[in-house]
Design brief:
binds nicotinamide-adenine-dinucleotide; 311 residues; single chain; alpha/beta; nine-stranded mixed sheet; three-stranded antiparallel sheet; 9 helices
C-alpha cells in the first residue's frame, strides 16, 4: 500500500510555538511535518510525541525530525520559530540582536534548499525578522511574510467579546503595523455585531480593550516566568500555513515588505493581505483615520530604528 503524498511543512525551531503548530498540522492531516532544531534530540522527541498523538487521531501526516538543513527541500511552507523567547521584563526589541543573527543563518539554508517555498516568519521581533529573511534569501516579497496579526487580533477579539458580553464571532478587527506594544489598533475597523465598535462600546471600554490587547503577551510572560505564549502563536502559524496549502485566499493581517502601500517602502509592517498557494495574492489597503495613519508612521520610524540595532 502506498501512503498518500501530503504537502510538506518544515518548522525551524521545535520549541513551544513550533511544536504547537506542528501538533495542529499533524492532527488535522494538513501536511507532513519536518521539525528542525539546533537541539536534535528535542526535535526528535517532539516528532515522536506529535507523530504518536497524530496516530491517535488517525492522521495521515508523518512527523519527522530533520537531521540536516538539506531536508528543507520541497517544502511547501517553511515556518521560522527558532530563537529565544522573551523573558519577563525583556522587550521584543531586545531580542533583535540574538534572533536577528539566528534568522540570518537560517535564511542562508532556506535560500539554498527551500528554493520554491513560501516562508512564514514567527520569531520576534517579528517584523524585523521578516525583513531579514526577505533580504537574506532575496525571495520575492510575495513569498516571505510574518505571522502576528492573528495573535494580536485574536487577543483583541477575546477582550472585546468579554466587554460586549458576546462571543468572538461577533467581533471584527484589524491590528496593523509592528507586532510590538505600539501596534496600531485601527479602532475605525472594529465591529461588534453589525455595529461600529464606537457605537456598541464606550470610549473607556475601547481603551481598556486596546490596553489589554497590547499587554496580553507581557501578561502571559510574567505569569509563565520562563517563556512566552505559544498556543495562540502556534495556532496562527498553523492557520496561515493552511491558507497557503489550501490556496484559500483568506485575508489576514500579516507583516509584509511594503513597496509604496500606505506611502511606505523598505519596511515590513502588518497590513491586511490575501494569502494562497503562491504566498501573498493581494495587499488590501484599508481605509484608516488620520490618527491611525500617524501611529502607523510612528511604527515605520520605530522599525527603521530597529534595523540600526542590527549593525
Ligand atoms: P522556545 O525557546 O520554546 O523555542 C525556540 C526554539 O528555537 C528552541 O527549541 C531552540 O533550540 C531553537 N533554536 C534556536 N536557535 C536555533 C537555530 N539556529 N536553528 C534551529 N533552532 C534553533 O521559544 P518559543 O516560545 O517557541 O518562541 C519562538 C519564537 O517565536 C520566539 O522568537 C518568540 O519571541 C516568537 N513568538 C512570536 C509570536 C508572534 O506572534 N509572532 C508570538 C509568540 C512568540
Amino acid at each position: 500500500m502506498v501512503a498518500e503524498k501530503l504537502p510538506k511543512i518544515s518548522i525551524i525551531g521545535a520549541g513551544n510555538v513550533g511544536s504547537s503548530c506542528a501538533f495542529l498540522a499533524a492532527l488535522n492531516s494538513l501536511a507532513d511535518v519536518f521539525l528542525f532544531d539546533k537541539f536534535q534530540d528535542l526535535a526528535q522527541a517532539k516528532a515522536l510525541d506529535i507523530g504518536q498523538a497524530a496516530a491517535a487521531f488517525n492522521s495521515k501526516s508523518k512527523v519527522v525530525a530533520a537531521s540536516s538543513m538539506d531536508e528543507l527541500k520541497n517544502s511547501n511552507v517553511v515556518i521560522i520559530t527558532a530563537g529565544i523567547a522573551r523573558k519577563p521584563g525583556m522587550s521584543r526589541a531586545e531580542l533583535v540582536k540574538t534572533n536577528g543573527k539566528i534568522a540570518q543563518e537560517i535564511s542562508a539554508d532556506i535560500k539554498k534548499f527551500a528554493t520554491d517555498s513560501i516562508v512564514l516568519a514567527v520569531s520576534n521581533p517579528l517584523d524585523l525578522i521578516t525583513w531579514i529573511v526577505l533580504k537574506e534569501t532575496g525571495f520575492d516579497r510575495k513569498r516571505v511574510f510574518g505571522m502576528a496579526g492573528i495573535v494580536d487580533n485574536s487577543r483583541l477579539r477575546y477582550f472585546a467579546a468579554q466587554k460586549a458580553n458576546t462571543d468572538v464571532n461577533d467581533i471584527q478587527s484589524h491590528v496593523l503595523g509592528l507586532h510590538a506594544d505600539k501596534m496600531v489598533i485601527a479602532e475605525e475597523q472594529m465591529v461588534v455585531g453589525n455595529e461600529p465598535a464606537k457605537k456598541a462600546l464606550s470610549a473607556e471600554q475601547i481603551d481598556q480593550i486596546k490596553d489589554s490587547t497590547r499587554g496580553a503577551g507581557a501578561q502571559i510572560v510574567s505569569l509563565l516566568k520562563n517563556g512566552s505564549a505559544f498556543y495562540l502563536p502556534g495556532s496562527g502559524a498553523y492557520l496561515m500555513a493552511k491558507a497557503i496549502i489550501e490556496d484559500t485566499g483568506q485575508a489576514f493581517d500579516t507583516s509584509v515588505f511594503l513597496e509604496g502601500e500606505y506611502g511606505f517602502s523598505d519596511v515590513c509592517l502588518g497590513v491586511s493581505a490575501r494569502i494562497g498557494r503562491d504566498g501573498i495574492k493581494e495587499i488590501i489597503e484599508l481605509s484608516i483615520t488620520k490618527e491611525s495613519y500617524v501611529e502607523l508612521r510612528e511604527n515605520e520610524r520605530q522599525f527603521k530604528e530597529q534595523i540600526k540595532l542590527l549593525s
